[in-house]
Amino acid sequence: NVTPEHKWVLRHVEQLAPVLSKNTDVIVALEMGMHGAYGEMHSDTSITYDRVAEAVNMMLRNTPPELKILTRTGNYSAKVLGFDNWGVDFHIDGEKFAEIAKAKGDTMYRVGMFNDGYLGTQYDYGTWGADCKTSICREEGVAWLEKYSVNTPYGGEALTTAGGYEVINTPEFLAYEGFRTHTSYLNIQWNNNLIDSWKKSHFEGKDFEYDGSKIDSLTGFKYVNDHLGYRFVLRESWITDTVGADGILRAKLRIQNVGFGNLTRNAPVKLAVLEDLEGSNLDMCPMPTYYE
């Protein structure tokens, strides 16, 4: 739980940034885990908002826009973006927020959060503030993630509830908030007690095909597991039998994303068209023709 001297954190950023930059085809985001116990930005008196902001902004400057950078709390992310008076200014409909968003441009959509206290209390173990006058509270933070983290992964570790706090670590709560925060990933190994309880619980919510009142075997774990990240479902498909004389293949596809999250960047779509093998009974698999 001892963060290296600040100069060494900056040196780590300097060394790591080129490696990340060369591999954005397989790296979506960086949890900025260089400060505090477990890299979770807590339990270390040497951490300051200014030091975290300097390190994160250095990483932002030295990596391409495809890479998202995540801090541990809303307050840290706000400091990175240039907010100081969080309780007053960090409201997405406010004048100060609009001013900073305009100045930051696309960077507003690169800075996000990871949450290793997810759902453990109504404050997510200090991820969100209890005093909305001096800190970013849950609703303000979720509203920010909903609008500005559309293509930025959000997740971390979901936890059991601390004694005396409101219980919100349920699949039914995630069925609402998960869509707003675009929750993309959770640690499958921690907290194991919570995960085991989800596996034993029956999902009581209703969400597209996931209706707990109609599916007796639907567990809370299956609901959460099936909704993390983006999940595209083909809802409608129409395609012509042949390619027209103009060389155009006409098709109509309706695809719905039923997951909490979204694609993190534009991606090509390939449509495989299988052609009959002349004179065969299709015992062999025909070679597909791909259209992008």
**Overall geometric form:** globular
* pLDDT < 50 stretches: none
Largest sheet: 5 strands, parallel
Task: Write down the overall mean pLDDT.
Answer: 92
- SSE pattern, N- to C-terminal: HEHEHHHEHEHEHEEHEEEE
Residues in helices, as a percent range:
25-40%
Rg calculated over all Cα atoms? 23 Å
- Strand content range: 15-25%
Structural class determined from secondary elements: alpha/beta
Number of helices: 9
Distance between the termini: 49 Å
Overall number of strands: 11
Report strand order across the widest sheet.
1-2-3-4-5
Short description:
The chain has 292 residues and is of the alpha/beta class. It contains nine helices and eleven strands.
Describe this structure in words.
The strands form 4 sheets. Strands 1-2-3-4-5 form a 5-stranded parallel beta sheet. The termini are far apart. It contains 9 helices and 11 strands. With 292 residues, the chain is of the alpha/beta class. The mean pLDDT is 92. It has helices spanning 6-22, 49-61, 74-81, 86-89, 95-104, 138-148, 171-181, 192-200, 220-227, and strands at residues 29-31, 68-71, 111-118, 154-158, 183-186, 206-207, 210-211, 232-239, 251-257, 271-274, 288-291. Helix 1 packs parallel to helix 2, helix 6 (138-148) crosses helix 7 and helix 7 (171-181) packs parallel to helix 9.
